[in-house]
Write a structure and sequence with these properties.
The complex is a heterodimer of chains A (328) and B (301).
Chain A (H helix, E strand, L loop, with lengths): L1 H28 L3 H6 L5 H11 L5 H13 L13 H36 L4 H15 L2 H15 L12 E2 L4 E2 L4 H34 L2 H8 L4 H38 L5 H10 L3 H29 L2 H4 L8
Antiparallel strand pairs in A: 1-2
Helix pairs in contact in A: 1-12, 5-6, 5-8, 5-10, 6-8, 7-8, 7-10, 8-10, 10-11, 10-12, 11-12
Chain B lengths: L1 H4 L2 H7 L2 H18 L1 H4 L41 H37 L1 H16 L2 H15 L9 H12 L2 H14 L3 H8 L4 H38 L10 H10 L7 H28 L5
Helix pairs in contact in B: 3-5, 3-13, 5-6, 5-8, 5-9, 5-11, 5-12, 5-13, 7-8, 8-11, 9-11, 10-11, 11-12, 11-13, 12-13
The chains are: A mainly alpha (328), B mainly alpha (301).
């Protein structure tokens, strides 16, 4: 057991170093830090001095470990475009992204589970079929089109909700939140829906499939035979047993929420890290790209590690043998 | 040819209205993209053919200055939207198909090597695939796009944008091909014909490419169709975000991006028609791919 956990941890550390190596290679070799800091016309002496002070003449492995060491202290260098420290840019924009991800995750899980249970119980119902077929169309729609559609309907035509930005946010010193003002809350609705919709349909389908599976089991028939109310059978017995896979999938989806946040934040001009990344790609702001890759990579590795370890905790059969094949 | 018309596959096709309709839509769109310069009333990217006075003409309405009518209206520069969509469709389909082609060649080759040679090469390739699988492909495509832009000199960035786009989407979608091909290669290589080929002294590449490859291609075509839908959506997304096809060579995604700017001023058609075209294209490729998968190889589900 301990050995398996250690081996799994070792794999994660290896992937982390690999991700760090890729972001280091991007940082070091794509774009030219000297040109970007000094401009093309600088004298050779000043260039040499800067190259020396940045340590660009050191052996590669020393530069790499220097990069990792600085990254661990949250030092990612300076943005080529704005001249701000990248770490500061990220910290300023992180609350916006986390709040958006949180809202959409809650939306996706709550609505997904409810709709999944409903469609499983009323399998032949008209509403259940409508929900299922609409979700199929929703999945085939590109996410950005859903966002544009939401803006069109709710911001342009109905004028109910704002179409861009976070509204007024309250600064708590280390964290600026949009949860405390009306305009902040209103601005969260559309991007929250757009970001959560895909995950919601996924969770709904999964909950439905698991629920149908569980409802066939003998203990459900027995519970019904005992004369328990539908409510107790469905929510007390059935739902509880469907939640384990649903939670793991929801956890794994956290990573794609971060990736799709890039699209949502661009559509709604949401001032988060995703918008920062897209602008970095557009303006070839290498330090920002490399820092973003490092952060998101770490997040993905951590999520996968936690999910794998949770599996180990939940399912004793895995403890003796190998872990799942696909891992990072 | 006759064998094809008598096959189970063709029979299943004629019994599925969904498959026929979606293939019809795909074929229609491919044809109109290929022959865009014959169908389109104007060349939308020839500045000489544009008349600024025609700007913001609503669909099927006569322009108040020139009296000209346009089937789907015009954009801010007086560009006929119908022609722009046809040319955009061409860019979208071209990028999508080239990207899938790249992903397919790369994935099939790596899958063949991993499955046939095995050993540390297999471990290396599959580990790489595992790691890439944990990241959403759109994120990887964005990163490759950004890195490639960084490597290019600034004056080439616009010019090379389409190539870079193909490269970044292609490199982000190879994993599924490699995994499937590796699996079927490992089954095939145990069969007698491979042993016979080895016995008569053929080398590894001959065996892999001439003997195993034709036998593992079935599922590859299915994956290619499904990946095409993904690639078209990925391309549209990247272009919509402004990190894809440039304004000088707009794809459907770029057109939607332009259209979004005019939503608030009431020119809805500039957004709606490109969006509907993208939707029809992605949906029909997707549906046809799903049908193909269910018919040819239900195990892939």
């Amino acid at each position: 057991m301990l050995l398996i956990i250690l081996r799994r941890l070792g794999q994660s550390v290896f992937v982390l170093f690999l991700v760090a190596f890729i972001s280091f290679m991007i940082f070091r070799y794509v774009g030219n830090p000297v040109d970007n800091l000094l401009g093309q016309e600088a004298t050779t002496e000043r260039r040499e001095a800067l190259i020396e002070s940045l340590g660009l003449n050191d052996p590669l492995h020393e530069q790499y470990f220097g990069f990792v060491f600085r990254a661990l202290q949250f030092d990612f260098g300076v943005s080529y475009r704005t001249g701000e420290p990248v770490a500061e840019m990220i910290l300023n924009r992180l609350p916006a992204t986390i709040e958006l991800a949180l809202v959409s995750a809650v939306f996706a899980i709550l609505l997904g589970v409810v709709a999944g249970v409903y469609t499983a119980i009323n399998r032949r119902g008209f509403i259940a079929n409508t929900i299922l077929s609409t979700s199929l169309i929703g999945v085939s729609l590109p996410t950005f089109l859903i966002g544009v559609l939401l803006i069109w309907v709710f911001a342009v035509e109905l004028k109910w909700l704002p179409s861009f930005g976070r509204g007024t946010s309250v600064d708590l010193g280390f964290w600026s939140t949009g949860f405390l003002t009306v305009s902040g809350l209103k601005s969260l609705i559309l991007p929250g829906i757009m970001l959560g919709l895909y995950q919601m349909t996924l969770i709904m389908r999964l909950t439905r499939a698991e629920m149908l599976e569980v409802l066939r089991q003998d203990y459900i028939k027995f519970a019904k035979a005992r004369g328990l109310s539908d409510r107790t059978v469905y929510f007390g017995h059935a739902l509880k047993n469907t939640l384990v896979p649903v939670i793991t999938i929801a956890g794994l989806q956290l990573g794609s929420i971060v990736a799709f946040a890039i699209i949502t934040e661009t559509v709604f001009q949401w001032p988060g890290v995703g918008l920062m990344f897209i602008n970095a790609v557009y303006f070839v702001d290498i330090p920002v790209m490399s820092a973003y890759l490092l952060l998101v990579g770490t997040l993905f590795v951590l999520i996968n590690l936690i999910v794998d370890l949770l599996y180990l905790l939940i399912d004793p059969r895995l403890r003796d043998g190998q872990l799942r094949g696909a891992e990072s | 040819m006759r064998r094809f018309f008598q096959s189970d596959f063709f029979y299943a096709f004629t019994r599925s209205p969904l498959a026929m309709v979606s293939l019809f839509v795909v074929a229609l769109m491919v044809l109109s993209a290929v022959f865009a310069n014959f169908i389109a009333p104007t060349n939308p990217f020839d500045p000489a053919s544009l008349n600024l006075m025609n700007g913001f003409t609503a669909p099927m309405e006569a322009n108040i200055f020139t009296g000209e009518k346009f089937l789907l209206g015009t954009d801010d520069q007086g560009r006929d939207l119908f022609s722009a969509i046809l040319y955009g469709l061409r860019v979208s389909l071209f990028v999508g198909m080239m990207a899938v082609g790249l992903a397919m060649v790369l994935g099939v080759l790596l899958g063949l090597i991993a499955g046939y040679v095995g050993g540390w090469l297999d471990t290396l390739i599959m580990r790489l695939a595992d790691i890439q699988m944990t990241f959403p492909s759109i994120l990887i495509a964005m990163l490759i796009f950004g890195v490639a832009r960084g490597l290019l000199p600034p004056e080439l960035r616009e010019e090379m944008a389409i190539t870079v786009l193909i490269l970044s989407i292609g490199l982000s979608e190879w994993v599924n091909f490699a995994r499937t091909v590796r699996g079927s290669t490992m089954v095939e290589k145990e069969k007698e014909y491979v042993a016979a080929a080895r016995l008569i002294g053929l080398n590894r590449w001959q065996i892999m490419l001439r003997h195993i490859l034709p036998n593992v291609l079935g599922p590859v075509l299915v994956i290619a169709t499904i990946t095409l839908a993904l690639a078209i959506i990925a391309e549209a997304t990247l272009s919509f975000l402004g990190v894809g096809a440039p304004r000088t060579e707009p794809s459907l995604g770029t057109l939607i991006r332009i259209g979004q700017d005019f939503l608030f001023s009431g020119e809805w058609w500039i957004l709606l028609f490109p969006a509907l075209s993208l939707l029809a294209l992605a949906l029909s490729v997707n549906l046809f791919g799903d049908w193909l998968r269910d018919t040819l190889n239900p195990r892939l589900r």
